[in-house]
Amino acid sequence: MIEVLSPSEIARARDTGALVAEILQAGKQLASVGTNLLEIDALARDLMTRAGAESCYVDYEPSFGEGPFGHYICTSVNDGVLHGKPFDYALRDGDLVTLDLAVSLRGVVADAAISFFVGTETPEGAALIDATERALAAGIAAAGPKARIGDISSAIGEVLRGSGYPVNLQFGGHGVGSTMHQDPHIANDGRAGRGYRLRPGLLLAIEPWAMLDTAELVTDADGWTLRSATGCLTAHSEHTVAITDAGAEILTLPR
């Protein structure tokens, strides 16, 4: 299903996006040496509840997961890159953390992710995060009315491949609206000029992610967390954008 939202729904989506950005930044501020991943999950729950929003994750039970996710935010650490299920783990100096959050507020969903270091950065990890952020910016710049999905994919892939990182095509961006995961799928590499043509009112979650030295994922014992097959560092950057007559409006920037 592909939803095209009305102007009033886009206005509500701006509020949802602002809430997602607020919770992600609060989680980042909380994350320090000794912070437990379950504390970050509890913070996300509390801020969501206070805003009258609903989690897109707690009851989420897709075919690729093992049972309902059961938590409010994805917390992936180091070699974990997607669908990181919070567990009893205290963050350590030098951990590379990804927080990924999808929230529904007044019937409209927004989805975003950030990657950052706790304490000491490593050059290779910082370069990886930077590449995903640059790929995200390139993908957003390629989005707009009359552009095609392949234009976004091509722009993302060019940055990631040009930075020397393998690209996995199993998981990527997607449409959002009244639900979290909708068509069209946005692969993180592809051919420009191909695929669904964008139009105003479309909401897209654009999400480049990369692993240092592999394109292969393995599933953790929790049945959810996806890790790099080699144990290498990973990073993930994501924004929800609204396609407008003028281009792509980022809804999940911190205010």
List keywords for this structure.
alpha+beta; 14 strands; 4 helices; 255 residues; four-stranded antiparallel β-sheet
Which secondary structure elements does this structure contain, and how are they paired or packed?
Layout: H1 7-30, H2 37-50, E1 54-55, E2 74-77, E3 80-82, E4 96-105, E5 108-117, H3 123-142, H4 149-162, E6 173-176, E7 182-186, E8 203-206, E9 209-211, E10 217-219, E11 226-228, E12 234-236, E13 239-244, E14 247-250
Antiparallel strand pairs: 1-4, 2-4, 3-11, 4-5, 6-7, 6-8, 8-13, 9-12, 10-11, 13-14
Helix pairs in contact: 1-2, 3-4
InterPro entries: Creatinase/aminopeptidase-like (IPR036005), Pept_M24 (IPR000994), Pept_M24_MAP (IPR001714), Pept_M24A_MAP1 (IPR002467)
Binding site for substrate: 83, 181
Organism: Gulosibacter faecalis
